[in-house]
Amino acid sequence: LHRISSLLANELQRYGMQGCGQSQIVPLITGSSESAIKLSKGLRKAGFNVLPIRTPTVPKGTERVRFSLHANLAEVEIMNLANAIQNIHL
Question: Would you tell me which of 14, 31, 40, 41 could form a disulfide with 52, CB atoms 3.0–4.6 Å apart?
Answer without folding.
Answer: 40
